[in-house]
Design a protein that fits this description.
With 243 residues, this protein is an alpha/beta fold. The chain contains seven helices and eleven strands. The chain has helices at residues 13-36, 93-100, 106-116, 136-145, 153-165, 202-205, 211-216, and strands at residues 47-52, 56-63, 68-75, 78-82, 87-90, 122-123, 171-175, 182-186, 192-196, 218-223, 229-235. The protein has a five-stranded mixed sheet with strand order 6-1-2-3-7, with helices on one face. Helix 4 (136-145) packs antiparallel against helix 5 (153-165). The protein is elongated, with a radius of gyration of 25 Å. It starts with 12 loop residues before the first helix and ends in an 8-residue tail after the last strand.
């Protein structure tokens, strides 16, 4: 049988040039968007994000120094005094109210700061409890591409790479149902739910403290009105955080 030599498929220089041009345009567009977008996170400080599903509001604390994530889980059926003089609400209803008012999760995040004293920085539509079990491409699509939040594209990309590197032993879930802060009882609307009966513990609030201060340690010097040294308060390594 006659043998046939296989023809080598050689890409034309024009086709290569077109592919290169498209790649450069896309790269330039991404860089433009990243540089143009404002950022809420420096990638080093702790960042606190609130998200919500049908049953729970999740306050996620991301700690780049400790390479960890902590999820504080609060039932949506928790009765709270809302921010902005809105009165008494179920916690889970505040996000819907914000969406109707065109403000997204702002009422929810501010109420968590106002009522629970949790310093929440930003909100997101994506339920961050799910990221550890999510396919990385699906997670990228849901969180980076289509997510509605007050996080910029730059922040979402940073967070995507930070979260995806975390292992299961670096993620902690803290359900407030299991502590002493919440109590199940009848709410003012007659339904069953939860009320805050104790202020969040110092141990719980310590999750929001700056890890860099705790690790490095520092001191605050107090001076009198004439500028003379009065006393020194040590914080950080030797400070008792009440845990």
């Amino acid at each position: 049988m006659p043998t046939h030599k296989k023809k080598k498929i050689v890409k034309s220089p024009k086709k290569k040039k077109r592919v290169l041009i498209v790649f450069l345009i896309l790269s330039a567009l991404i860089l433009f968007l990243l540089n143009r977008a404002s950022s809420n996170w420096d990638g080093v400080s702790k960042l606190t994000i609130v998200s919500q599903d049908n049953e729970n509001v999740t306050v996620t604390i991301l700690d780049p120094v400790a390479q960890s994530a902590s999820n504080i889980i609060i039932p949506t059926a928790t009765q709270v005094e809302a921010c902005c003089d809105l009165g008494t609400w179920r916690l889970g209803s505040l996000y819907d109210l914000g969406k109707k008012e065109g403000k997204g999760g702002i009422f929810l995040s501010r109420t968590l700061t106002f009522y629970f004293t949790f310093p929440v920085h930003v909100w997101t539509d994506y339920d961050l409890k799910l990221f550890s079990n999510e396919n990385k491409f699906r997670f990228f699509y849901k969180f980076v591409i289509i997510d509605k939040s007050d996080l910029s594209l730059q922040d979402r990309l940073r967070l995507y790479f930070f979260l995806f590197k975390l292992k299961s032993n670096q993620i902690e879930d803290i359900d407030l149902r299991n502590g002493t802060a919440l109590e199940e009882k009848e709410l003012i609307d007659g339904s069953r739910g939860y009320v805050l009966v104790r202020a969040p513990s110092e141990k719980l609030l310590s999750y929001f403290s700056d890890t860099r201060i705790i690790l490095l340690g520092c001191s605050i010097k107090e001076v009198d009105p004439e500028g003379n040294y009065d006393m020194e308060i040590r914080i950080g390594n030797n400070y008792n955080w009440g845990i």
